[in-house]
C-alpha cells in the first residue's frame, strides 16, 4: 500500500510517499516558503536526482497540488495516478486528551483537532490547513491523523498533573501532554526487536535529542512519563528552547529588560537553549567545532546539556524502579558520539559500560554498550514518517 505522509507547518509542507509493505520511501520532498516570496518544492524521487521546482505557492492547497503533480508527472513521477495513493497520514502535533491513538479523519475529528488549537497555536492550525488542502484535492482518499501527543496518553495523573490549582486542569486541561510520541513509540518498540526481547517486558528510556529534545520513560510498551509538558518548551535544554526553568525568571527578565510576556516567551522558545547559552548557534556540529578549538562557553553549554539528560535518566530510572535499555535517537542522539559518551560516563552506577568503537558509529542501529553492560545502551535512528505510514495503514484496514 502506498501512503502519503504529510507534515504541514505554517509555511512549509514535508511529505514522503511510503510503500508500507517493504517500508521503502518512494519519493519525498519539502515545500518551502508557502505564502511568501521565493517558494519552492524540493522533490526527491527514490534513487534519482533531487529536483527543485521554483513556483509561487500562495496557499497550502497550491503546495499540495504541486506535490501531486510531481508525484504523478510522466517524467519525474513515481505513480501513474493519484488512485495509486491508498491513504494520506497527517502528522498532528496536539491531540489533547481526546486522542490516545490515530484516527480516520472525518468532520468530527477535524472539529476535535480545532478544539486543541489553543494548546498548540503554532502547530495545530497549520496541520489542519494541510488536512483541508488534501481533502479538497483528494476527496476520495482516506486520511488518518497521527498525533505527537497520543503515545503519552497512558501517563497516569500523578505524572501529568502540575502542582497548580486543580481548577486549571478542570477548566482548561492544563497538564503534561508530552510530544515526539511517534518517535518514542517507534524507537522503544524497535529497541525491543533489536534486543530480541518482549516489548511488554521492558523498561526503556528513550532520549530523543534533536533540535527539539525530549526523554520518555516507556514501561511495558507504555509511556509513563516524559519531559515535555503542556507545550514542547518544558524539559531538556534544546537547540533554541530553554527547557525547564524557574517560572519566576519570566517575571524577573520582563521587569529587568522592560519586556512583555510574549517577548519573554519568544526568548525562551527561540533565543535560549544551547544557542543562547553558547552564543554560537543551535547546531551541535558548530558547538562541537567551537569546543574542539578551545571555546570554553561551548564546552560549558555541552556539559550543561548532558547534565540535564543525565538527571532525567536518573529520574525515570527511579520512576520505573529500574531500566533495561537507554536509547539515543534524532539528529544529536544518532550522530553525536561525544554527547552519548558524556551522558553514559555518569551512568556507571547502573552498571553501564560503553563500547567506544561502537559508539563512534553514527546514524545506524547499533548497541553501543558492551556485552557485560547491565543496562543496554543503543542508537536507534527514528523514523516518524514510517511510523505515521504504518499507523495510517492500521487505521484504514
Ligand atoms: P533533528 O531536529 O533531529 O533534525 O536534529 C538536529 C540536530 O542534529 C542539529 O543540532 C544537528 O547539529 C544535529 N546533527 C544532525 N546531523 C548531525 C551529524 N552528522 N553530526 C552531528 N550532529 C548532527
Strand order of the largest sheet: 5-4-3-2-1-6-8-7
- Which small molecules are bound? adenosine monophosphate
Determine the mean pLDDT.
96
Give unreliable regions as ranges: none
Structural category: alpha/beta
Overview of the molecule:
The chain is of the alpha/beta class. It has two domains: 2-147, ATPase, nucleotide binding domain (Nucleotidyltransferase, domain 5); 196-379, Nucleotidyltransferase, domain 5. It is 39% helix and 19% strand. It has 15 helices and 14 strands. It has helices at 60-72, 107-115, 124-137, 157-160, 166-172, 181-195, 248-257, 261-270, 273-278, 284-292, 296-319, 330-335, 337-345, 356-359, 384-396, and strands at residues 2-8, 13-19, 24-32, 40-45, 51-54, 87-92, 103-104, 143-147, 203-209, 213-219, 222-226, 325-329, 366-367, 376-379. It has an eight-stranded mixed sheet, with helices on both faces. α1 (60-72) crosses α3 (124-137) and α10 crosses α11 (296-319). The N and C termini lie close together (11 Å). The relative contact order is 0.11. The mean pLDDT is 96. It binds adenosine monophosphate.
Amino acid at each position: 500500500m502506498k501512503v502519503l505522509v504529510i507534515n504541514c507547518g505554517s509555511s512549509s509542507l514535508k511529505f514522503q510517499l511510503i510503500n508500507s509493505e517493504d517500508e521503502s520511501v518512494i519519493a519525498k520532498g519539502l515545500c518551502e516558503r508557502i505564502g511568501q516570496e521565493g517558494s519552492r518544492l524540493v522533490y526527491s524521487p527514490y534513487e534519482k536526482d533531487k529536483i527543485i521546482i521554483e513556483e509561487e505557492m500562495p496557499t497550502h492547497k497550491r503546495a499540495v497540488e504541486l506535490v501531486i503533480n510531481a508525484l504523478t508527472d510522466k517524467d519525474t513521477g513515481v505513480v501513474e495516478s493519484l488512485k495509486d495513493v491508498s491513504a494520506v497520514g497527517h502528522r498532528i502535533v496536539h491531540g489533547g486528551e481526546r486522542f490516545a491513538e490515530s484516527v480516520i479523519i472525518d468532520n468530527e475529528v477535524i472539529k476535535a483537532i480545532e478544539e486543541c488549537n489553543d494548546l498548540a497555536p503554532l502547530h495545530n492550525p497549520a496541520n489542519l490547513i494541510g488536512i483541508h488542502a488534501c481533502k479538497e484535492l483528494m476527496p476520495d482518499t482516506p486520511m488518518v491523523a497521527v498525533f505527537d501527543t497520543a503515545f503519552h496518553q497512558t501517563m497516569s495523573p500523578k505524572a501529568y498533573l502540575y502542582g497548580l490549582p486543580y481548577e486549571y486542569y478542570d477548566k482548561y486541561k492544563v497538564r503534561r501532554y508530552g510530544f515526539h510520541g511517534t518517535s518514542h513509540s517507534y524507537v522503544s518498540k524497535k529497541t525491543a526487536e533489536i534486543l530480541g526481547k518482549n516489548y511488554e517486558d521492558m523498561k526503556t528510556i528513550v532520549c530523543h535529542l534533536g533540535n527539539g529534545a525530549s526523554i520518555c520513560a516507556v514501561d511495558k510498551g507504555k509511556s509513563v512519563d516524559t519531559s515535555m509538558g503542556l507545550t514542547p518548551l518544558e524539559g531538556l535544554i534544546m537547540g533554541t528552547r530553554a527547557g525547564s526553568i524557574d517560572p519566576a525568571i519570566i517575571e524577573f527578565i520582563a521587569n529587568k529588560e522592560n519586556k512583555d510576556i510574549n517577548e519573554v516567551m519568544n526568548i525562551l522558545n527561540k533565543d535560549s537553549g544551547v544557542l543562547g547559552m553558547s552564543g554560537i548557534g543551535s547546531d551541535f556540529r558548530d558547538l562541537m567545532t567551537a569546543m574542539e578549538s578551545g571555546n570554553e562557553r561551548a564546552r560549558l553549554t555541552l556539559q550543561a546539556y548532558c547534565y540535564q539528560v543525565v538527571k532525567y535518566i536518573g529520574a525515570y530510572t527511579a520512576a520505573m524502579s529500574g531500566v533495561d535499555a537507554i536509547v539515543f535517537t534524532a539528529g544529536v542522539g544518532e550522530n553525536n558520539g561525544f554527547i552519548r559518551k558524556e551522558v553514559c560516563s555518569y551512568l556507571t552506577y547502573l552498571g553501564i559500560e560503553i563500547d567506544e568503537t561502537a559508539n563512534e558509529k553514527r546514524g545506524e542501529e547499533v548497541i553501543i554498550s558492551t556485552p557485560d553492560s547491565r543496562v543496554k545502551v543503543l542508537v536507534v535512528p527514528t523514523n516518524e514518517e514510517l511510523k505515521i505510514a504504518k499507523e495510517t495503514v492500521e487505521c484504514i484496514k
